[in-house]
Structure formats: C-alpha cells, structure tokens
Amino acid sequence: MSEFMPKVDGIANAELEKTVGPWGEAWRNFRKSKTAVIGMVIILFFIALALFGPIFAKEGINEQMAADRLQPPSAEYWLGTDDFGRDILSRIIHGARISMSVGFLSVILSVIVGSFLGIIAGYYGRWIDTIISRIFDIMLAFPSILLAIAIVSVLGPGLENALIAIAIINIPNFGRLIRSKVLSIKEDEYIMAAKGIGMKDARILFSHILPNSMAPVIVQGTLAVATAILEAAALGFLGLGAQAPQPEWGKMLADSKSYLQSAPWTMIFPGLSIMLTVLGFNLMGDGLRDALDPKMKN
C-alpha cells in the first residue's frame, strides 16, 4: 500500500498547482523562504514609515535650533539632533518618503521604457534589434554611477534630475532582459498560431508576449529599487541629488561627515536606514527569484 502513496501525493500536488495557479504557487514558495519574508517585512515597515510616519514626526523638520545643536539620543530626541539642531528621527522619517519615491518611480520609468524597447528589439529583430542593442551596449559600457553623474551634470543638480538619471541608467538592464525573454517566446506554438490567424503585432506583443515575460522583470525590478536608492543616496552625498534642506538620507550623510567622531549618531542612523532598506529589497528579490524561476525550485 505504501508504494502507492508517492503517486497519490504527486497527483494531489499537481491538482493543487492547477487550483492555485502559477502566481499562487509562487506566493506559496515565497512564504517558505524566511529571509524573503524578513525582507518583505523590512520593506513594508519603510513603506509604512514613508506613508504614515510624517503624521507622527515632529513639525518643522527644517527649522534650525542652535540651542539643541548636536544633542545625543535622549527621551526628547530619540535619535539625537544634527548640527543645526534638527530632529534626526523626524528627518529620517521624511527622508524615507523621498528615498522610496525615487526608488519606485525611477524603476517604474525604467521598466516602461526598457520593456518597450526590449519587446520591439526582440520581436522585430534585424536592424531595429541591432540599433537598440548597440545603444544598450554603449550605456552598459560605463559604470552606472558615473553615467548618472554625467547625466545629472548635464541636467543640473536636483532630486528630479537625479530620478531621471537613475531611470535612464537602468533602462538597458530591463531592455536586455525583456529582449532575451521575447526571443525565447516568439517562436512558441501559441505565438505562431496567433500570427497565423492574422492577429495584429500590437496585440501579440502586449496580450501574449509581455504578460509571459513579467516574472524576471518583477525580480529584477525589486533588486533595481535597492540599487536606485543607493544611487540616489550617492548622488545626494556628492551634492548632485537632493538639495538642502531636503531630508534625503544621502544628503544627511554628506552634511554629517564632519561630525563622525564628535557626533557619530548624525551619520549612523541615516546610514542604517539606507542599509536596512537596501537589505530588505535584496532579500525579497532573492526570494522572488527562487519562487518565480522554475529552474531554482527543488
């Protein structure tokens, strides 16, 4: 009797997969990864901080109070104050909204533009593919942060221009990812059947090819948000991103670098915020990759 149990379990699992669907199965696999769940909790915490934190933060985050300058963490100032007497906790809370906005918006722009170019290049091929692929190769030949610095130098320093620069430098990553996926899908039988019945290219691309190419994009997008937050912090640290008195985490690090020994809390807490946010997205991205990529399943 026992020899039939594996077959029964296999049939039950197959029926369960059909019931929950591929996305339900991916969610079930994602929840099995403790590190991925921890990453998701960290991300949800910072998203909640960005959305609702400013309601509870102290008002006047940009008001200078010389009497409270460089105060250590205390009951009044939980994370201390900076060199202008501003509450670091309140500025970190408001900075979460800036960093999250830059991360998500830049990645969304990169996904939209990169996916469009990648689909066009992979589906039509020939000279269109050659031109788009060579543009991607040229952009990827430069270190991403140097290319971002160059773009911001042309556009001018500022948070909006930093967002545009970060979006531009991430376009080739999504474009090449989608292009490779399209090349593997466009010869499938259901795509050939759609062409055979006279379905228009636009409908084939956006109704059949794009939805079946989204799994790797979701994984790459999650990891790209972490990279975008780091790049925004780097540009802010260099004075090319957020400008004073905006409480962006990288800008806060730049303003506090002179007080590393005398008032280390002014750098520690913004740095921890960056580290935890990036860690959360990386952990969640790894979990999504394992859940969505069939090759990674046991």
Automatic annotation (TrEMBL):
PROSITE patterns: ABC_TM1 (PS50928). Keywords: Cell membrane, Membrane, Transmembrane, Transmembrane helix, Transport. The chain crosses the membrane at residues 36-57, 104-124, 136-156, 217-242, 262-285. It comes from the Bacteria. It is found in: Cell membrane. CDD domains: TM_PBP2. It is a multi-pass membrane protein. It holds the Pfam family BPD_transp_1. Residues 96-285 form the ABC transmembrane type-1 domain. NCBIfam families: Opp2C. PANTHER family: D,D-DIPEPTIDE TRANSPORT SYSTEM PERMEASE PROTEIN DDPC-RELATED, OLIGOPEPTIDE TRANSPORT SYSTEM PERMEASE PROTEIN APPC. Belongs to the binding-protein-dependent transport system permease family. OppBC subfamily. This is ABC transporter permease.
